[in-house]
Amino acid sequence: MSDSGAGLISRYQARLALPTSVKPISLQEGSTPLVCLNSLCDPERGIVVYGKVEGANPTGSFKDRGMTVAITMAAHEGSEAVICASTGNTSAAAAAYAARAGMKAFVVIPDGKIALGKLAQAMMHGARVIQIAGNFDEGMQIVKAMPDEAPVTLVNSVNPYRLQGQKTAAFEIVDSLGRAPDYHFLPVGNAGNISAYWLGYSEYHQTGDLDKLPIMVGCQAAGAAPFVHGKIVADPETVATAIRIGNPQSWDLAQAARSESGGWFVAHEDQLILDAQQYLAQREGIFCEPASAVSVAALISALRESAIPDQSVVVCTLTGHGLKDPDTAISQSPEPLRVAPTLGAVRDAILR
Ligand code: F0G
Questions:
Q1: Which among 23, 33, 119, 286 is least buried, having the fewest CB atoms inside 10 angstroms?
Q2: What phi and psi, each to the nearest 5 degrees, are found at residue 248?
Q3: Residue of 87, 121, 233 to mutate, ligand 1, most atoms within 8 A of C-beta
Q4: From CA 323, how far away is CA 304, in angstroms rounded?
Q5: What pLDDT score does 17 carry?
C-alpha cells in the first residue's frame, strides 16, 4: 500500500470490493499525516499519542474518503445527481466530488448552524444549497426519502459505499504503525465514522494483517450525546456544529464497535472542547475544527483520570480542518493589536 500519491480506490481497490470496471472519481484523498502529539505523550509511562490529521484531505475533512467511493459508484450506476443532509463537511465533500464527476449535488443544511468555510465550499463547488428551518436530524429524515421522490442518489453514510471508503483510515494507521493503537479516540455524530474504523480494523484482523484490535472510544459533545444517554436527543446543541446530532443513523453499528472493542462513549462540555482545540493549535501546531477536538478533550480527561494504562499507543482522529470554522476560532482568540504603521509602534507592541 505504498502508492500514497494515488487516491483511495486505486490504493485499496482489493479491499473495497468494487467492480473492477469502475472509473475512480478521486482528488487523491487519504494518505493523511499520522503526527505524534508530543505534548500528550508520557515517556515515563510509555504512553505515545498520535493525531490522524484528516483535515489534510482535499476538502479538509475525512468525508473525502467516503465520498470518493460513494460518488464513483453513483457515477458507475449512471446517477446524474446526489443528495445529502449535512452539518457541513459532507456537503463540502459531496459538492466537490460531484463537480469532479460532472454530477449535480443537492445539499440540505440546518439553517444558520453550519460553519462558514463549509458553506463557502458547497456554494463554490456549485451545489444547490437547501437550508431548512430545522436541524440535521430533520434534514436526514427528508433526504432518506428523497430517492423515491426525485432522481437523486443518497450519499450520506447510510450509503454503504461511504463506510467502505472511510474504513481505509484504519488501514492507513495500521500500515503506518505496523499495529493498531491500543486506544482509538474519535468524535461521534451521525456515527458513520466510528463504524467505518471498526470495520477497517476488523477486516485487517480477519485477514491476519492485524493481531490485536484497538479499544474504541466514541467522543461526543455534552449537549449532543445520544450514545452517552443511551437515547435520541431531541434538541442537540453544541458549539461543535459538525456533531450537533441527536439521532445518529449508524446507531447499531456504533454500539457494536463499542461493545466488541470493549470501549466506551464519553461526552464533554463545549468549553473543554474549545480548550482542547486551542491546546492542539498552540502546543502542537495543528488547527482542527471544534468537533475534531472533542477526541483530544476526551483523551486529556482520560489521561488525568489514569484511565489509559502505561505502555499504551493512542490515536486521536482529528476529523476536520480548523479553517472550516473561522468564526469560532476568532471568537475565542484575542483581538489583533492595532498600532500605527511605524517602526517604533510595532517595536513597542513587541516589547510591551
Ligand atoms: N467530525 C467532523 C469534523 C464531522 O464533520 C463529523 C460529521 C464528525 C466528526 C462525526 O462523524 O457523523 O461519522 O459520526 N459530520 C457530518 C456532516 C454529519 O454532515 O458533515 P460521524
A1: 23
A2: -65, 135
A3: 87
A4: 29
A5: 87
